[in-house]
Amino acid sequence: MSMKKLFLIFLLLSSIPVNADKKPLIEDYDEVVATAKTAIQKSIEAPEGELYLFVQENKISGRFEFELTIHEKGLVATVFVKSNEGGSIQSQNKLKDFVKNIKFDFKMPKGKSYKFSYLFNFS
């Protein structure tokens, strides 16, 4: 195969976009919060949700309201406990650690972070 043909093949292949693992960019605050809350809710659903399985395994019960801060890459930056009704401190801390490690399937504008509250109800 000639160098010219190899070069053309290389040029053709390198121009094909590869977007398989790219997370969508969400800029609107309300859309970020709605998408994050939907993802959390899906994670709580039986029988296969990650959070559902974690709660079952660790026997967590009670109502916990957390204030979450997520930043540009869809990572949870902070988790602040706003309230705890009927749950132990140990359960609260386990849940808080789990939530802190959530990675959402979207990203936000560079340098941006958004706060929102979420009520986890495991009664």
Written description of the protein model:
The protein is of the alpha+beta class and 123 residues long. The chain is built from four helices and three strands. The chain has one domain (25-122). It has a three-stranded antiparallel sheet, with helices on one face. Strand 1 (62-71) and strand 2 form a beta hairpin. Helix 3 (50-58) runs antiparallel to helix 4 (89-100). The N and C termini lie far apart (69 Å). The mean pLDDT is 89.
Structure at a glance:
The chain is of the alpha+beta class and 123 residues long. Helices cover 40% and strands 25% of the residues.
Pattern of helices and strands: HHHEEHE
Round the Cα radius of gyration to an integer and report it. 20 Å
* Rounded average pLDDT: 89
The geometry reads as: elongated
**Estimated helix fraction:** 25-40%
Number of helices: 4
Query: Strands across the major sheet, in which order?
Result: 2-1-3
Main sheet properties: 3 strands, antiparallel
Strand tally is 3
Low confidence ranges: none
Amount of beta strand: 25-35%
N- and C-termini, Cα separation: 69 Å
Can you tell me the number of structural domains?
A: 1
Structure class: alpha+beta
